[in-house]
């Protein structure tokens, strides 16, 4: 059967303010025919949908979102991910500024309304019902006394005039600062949905309607023995508190995206390009593939490319996390957004736009932050029914007070019902998980890693077995000369031996030949003149160099030549035991010595593997190399379990075998040859250089190739899961405790009854506290104790 063709699209969604909004949109998308998966992210204000294009198209998905009452549009064709991120940042900044202005203005209006209401609260007007909240009574008494002396004109105003003044102020505040609550609630009502805006709109709307009747026709209440109280100040202050909370949330959201913003600003606006014989500054969008770009000392590189001429050290810390500048010569790859050091060079532009390394990282980080962790499912199920349940509880609260209260049952029932509506906070539940995912994704990026979303973050914390590939993962992935042994009786020294061997190997295409040549160059040994080069299949090479016949090869080559290797037998045995490849060098028919080559173990490998063991994880070395070499490497780094001589298919089978034993497996490989095993593992981790990582196969990419990043990723997963659980506990506990207290369950025994104003402050604090707790991940210590 052919694989089912599916596509994925990310749709911007406007108007979502809480977990209930998120649940409505997700339910609507998931119910569409042809949709395989739908993930809605409140923090990113987007919906990621996997769908069958033969059944449904993106315009239908957009319409499905609009049918729920939320704004949606087809995603624009993006050619510059970095520019798109900058646009997102500007939009977030504008949202924060608008909320801040409205919060401050409504706060000032609320403060004036409270002051202006004090004569009414003191009983000078309509016989305002005394507060049932002891704390509020004390506050009113404490404020009223100096107010009588400071603003006697308030007490001189006619009570009806004072009520009309408050009515006008409340209307302005509701119509301007609080307009979004009522518009969103009305849209939800038309589409038979409810969210946090519904709670705020119903709560403040009921308080306003009650106060409006009391202002226009106080006899409706007084004729029934009920004080014609007004709650205008409560309406304004509730709006002020909610807007303040949302302003803090918007500010915190901008902070959670700081890592993305830091990446986006790395790209310069212009590049210095050679056109003809002239250097000219052109916009980044004007750079074409193949253009020659000039970089001067201290400048930031504009685009990716290959160095043509010149030498310099380039600081790649912002992209790879590597603190030391990297030396760049002709032929080396450079990355746009990195900073040039003291040298100058020219390079040819290669990958541009959204294909560039910087754009790919920004896109991958944004996609990761848009995904959801499985732990979010519980919050989603509760959020889907939260608002209707809260409205039902508010009705029950009103009826209970009306039936059971001995004095002023209507007023007290009304106030308690409004308090229940206001204190309920689905926002905290909606923000609990995605804020932690966003901050954690940014944190790992600053450490030179990329993690593909919330699900990977959660799974990484459950890993109990880490499987490591050898070549390119534990080792450097390239052969290097490790030892040079001069044979007894040969008159030359190591330099002479290496110079002649390097001269001959420079003409060879064997993979190990390059290691000898590079070693000779590193020691400053100039190659000799050579002639008569010949490659001897399966044995080695020979050539005449400086008039001397030089053979370089294996033991079979020397046996063919009849040259004894007994003089270096002890050294050869030692080197072979340490997984070195030994090349014999014979000069003029006599043994001159041996050169040993090996794929060196990464400097940090032993410490990184020890850290994994200290965390209680089982570590397995899995390689296609021969057993002796694998065992030697395992001894060097402290691994006791070795599986050697396996094919790529065998690696997949070994991962599956461990999973069948109930293990949660993380596979760490170079991200290319190990792609099948990376995909099979519970968590695939690719070790690369930041430009050639197999991001499609791996869940986590270690951009700077530091094996210590495996332990760091697992430690961050533990810290993130801990934060998610704390956030969810606080969100649920707040609502479980706050709603009954707001309804008045403590009043019969302790006389405690919250006011709507205090309820709005608590509601704003709950969502802000969740975001603030997530921000702690930016500075958490990623150690074994975590």
Largest sheet descriptor: 7 strands, mixed
Q: How is the largest sheet built, in terms of strand order?
A: 14-26-25-24-15-22-23
Sheet-strand content, in percent, reads 15-25%
Mean pLDDT across all residues, rounded?
A: 80
Number of strands: 26
Distance N terminus to C terminus?
A: 47 Å
Q: How many helices in DSSP terms?
A: 29
Poorly predicted regions: 123-132, 690-694
- Cα shape: elongated
Radius of gyration over C-alpha positions, nearest whole angstrom:
35 Å
Query: Structural class from helices and strands?
Result: alpha+beta
Helix fraction? 40-55%
Topology:
Elements: E1 7-14, H1 19-30, E2 35-41, E3 46-51, H2 58-66, E4 71-72, H3 81-121, H4 134-150, H5 152-156, H6 159-175, H7 179-190, H8 196-216, H9 219-222, H10 232-256, H11 258-264, E5 270-275, E6 278-283, E7 292-295, E8 305-310, E9 312-315, H12 317-320, E10 326-328, E11 333-334, E12 339-340, E13 345-349, H13 357-370, H14 376-404, H15 409-423, H16 426-446, E14 449-451, H17 454-460, E15 465-469, H18 470-474, E16 475-486, H19 494-505, H20 513-522, E17 530-536, E18 540-545, E19 548-553, H21 555-561, H22 569-577, E20 581-587, E21 590-601, H23 605-614, E22 618-622, H24 627-637, E23 641-643, H25 648-660, E24 665-669, H26 675-680, E25 683-687, E26 700-702, H27 708-743, H28 747-750, H29 756-775
Parallel strand pairs: 15-22, 15-24, 22-23, 24-25, 25-26
Antiparallel strand pairs: 1-3, 1-4, 2-3, 5-6, 5-7, 7-13, 8-11, 8-13, 9-10, 9-12, 14-26, 16-21, 17-18, 18-19, 19-20, 20-21
């Amino acid at each position: 059967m052919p694989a089912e063709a599916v596509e994925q699209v990310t749709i911007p969604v406007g108007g979502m303010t809480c977990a209930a909004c998120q649940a409505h949109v997700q339910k609507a998308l998931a119910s569409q025919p042809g949709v395989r998966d739908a993930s809605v992210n409140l923090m990113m204000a987007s919906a990621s949908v996997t769908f069958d294009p033969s059944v449904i198209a993106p315009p239908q998905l957009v319409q499905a979102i609009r049918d729920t009452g939320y704004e949606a549009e087809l995603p624009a064709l993006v050619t510059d991910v970095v520019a798109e991120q900058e646009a997102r940042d500007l939009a977030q900044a504008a949202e924060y500024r608008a909320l801040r202005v409205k919060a401050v203005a409504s706060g000032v209006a609320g403060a004036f309304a409270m002051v202006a209401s004090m004569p009414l609260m003191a009983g000078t007007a309509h016989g305002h019902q005394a507060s049932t909240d002891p704390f509020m009574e004390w506050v009113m008494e404490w404020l009223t006394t100096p107010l009588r002396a400071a603003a006697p004109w308030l007490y001189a105003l006619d009570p009806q005039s004072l009520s009309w003044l408050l009515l006008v102020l409340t209307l302005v505040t509701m119509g301007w600062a609080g307009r979004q609550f009522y518009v969103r609630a009305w849209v939800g009502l038309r589409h038979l949905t409810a969210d946090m805006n519904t709670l705020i709109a119903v709560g403040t709307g009921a308080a306003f309607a009650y106060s409006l009747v009391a202002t226009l026709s106080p006899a409706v209440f007084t004729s029934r023995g009920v004080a014609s109280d007004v709650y205008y100040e409560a309406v304004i202050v509730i709006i002020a508190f909610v807007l303040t909370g949302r302003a803090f949330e918007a500010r915190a959201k901008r902070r959670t995206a700081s890592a993305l913003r830091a990446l986006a600003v790395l790209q310069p606006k212009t590049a210095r390009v050679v056109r003809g014989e002239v250097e000219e500054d052109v916009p980044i969008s004007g750079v074409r593939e193949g253009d020659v770009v000039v970089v001067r000392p201290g400048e930031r590189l504009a685009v990716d490319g290959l160095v043509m001429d010149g030498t310099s050290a380039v600081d790649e810390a912002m992209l790879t996390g590597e603190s030391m500048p990297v030396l760049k010569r002709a032929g080396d790859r450079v990355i746009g957004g990195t900073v040039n050091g003291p040298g100058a060079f020219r390079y040819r532009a290669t990958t541009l736009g959204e294909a560039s390394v910087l754009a790919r990282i920004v896109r991958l980080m944004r996609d990761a932050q848009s995904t959801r962790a499985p732990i979010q499912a519980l919050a989603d199920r509760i959020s889907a029914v939260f608002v209707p349940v809260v409205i039902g509880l508010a009705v029950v609260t009103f009826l209970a007070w009306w039936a059971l209260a001995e004095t002023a049952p209507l007023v007290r029932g009304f106030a308690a019902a409004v308090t229940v509506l206001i204190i309920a906070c689905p926002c905290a539940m909606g923000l609990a998980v995605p804020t932690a995912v966003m901050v954690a994704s940014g944190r790992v990026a600053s450490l030179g890693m990329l993690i593909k979303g919330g699900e990977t973050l959660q799974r990484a914390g459950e890993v109990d077995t880490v499987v490591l590939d050898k070549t390119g993962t534990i080792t450097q992935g390239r052969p290097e000369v490790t030892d040079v042994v001069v044979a007894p009786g040969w008159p030359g020294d190591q330099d002479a031996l290496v110079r002649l061997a390097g001269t001959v190997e420079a003409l060879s295409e064997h993979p190990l030949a390059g290691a000898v040549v590079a070693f000779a160059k590193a020691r400053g040994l100039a190659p000799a003149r050579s002639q008569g080069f010949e490659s001897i299949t399966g044995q080695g090479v020979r050539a005449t160099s400086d008039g001397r016949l030089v053979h370089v090869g294996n033991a079979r080559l020397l046996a063919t030549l009849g040259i004894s290797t007994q003089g270096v037998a002890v050294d050869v045995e030692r080197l072979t035991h340490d997984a070195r490849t030994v090349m014999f060098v014979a000069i003029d028919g006599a043994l001159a010595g041996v050169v040993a080559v090996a794929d060196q173990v990464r400097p940090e490998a032993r410490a990184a593997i020890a850290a994994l063991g200290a965390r209680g994880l089982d570590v397995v070395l899995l390689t296609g190399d021969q057993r002796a070499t694998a065992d030697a490497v395992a001894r060097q780094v402290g691994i006791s379990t070795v599986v050697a001589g396996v094919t790529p298919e065998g690696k997949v089978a070994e991962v599956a075998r461990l999973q069948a034993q109930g293990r949660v497996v993380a596979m760490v490989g170079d991200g290319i040859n190990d792609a099948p095993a990376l995909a099979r593992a519970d968590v695939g981790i690719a070790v690369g250089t930041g430009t050639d990582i197999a991001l499609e196969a791996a869940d986590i990419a270690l951009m700077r190739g530091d094996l210590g990043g495996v332990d760091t990723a697992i430690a961050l997963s533990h810290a993130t899961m801990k934060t998610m659980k704390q956030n969810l506990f606080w969100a649920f506990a707040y609502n479980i405790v706050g709603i009954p207290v707001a309804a008045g369950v403590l009043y019969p025994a302790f006389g405690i009854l919250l006011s709507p104003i205090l309820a709005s402050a608590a509601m704003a604090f709950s969502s802000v506290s969740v975001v603030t707790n997530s921000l702690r991940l930016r500075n958490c210590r990623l150690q074994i104790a975590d």
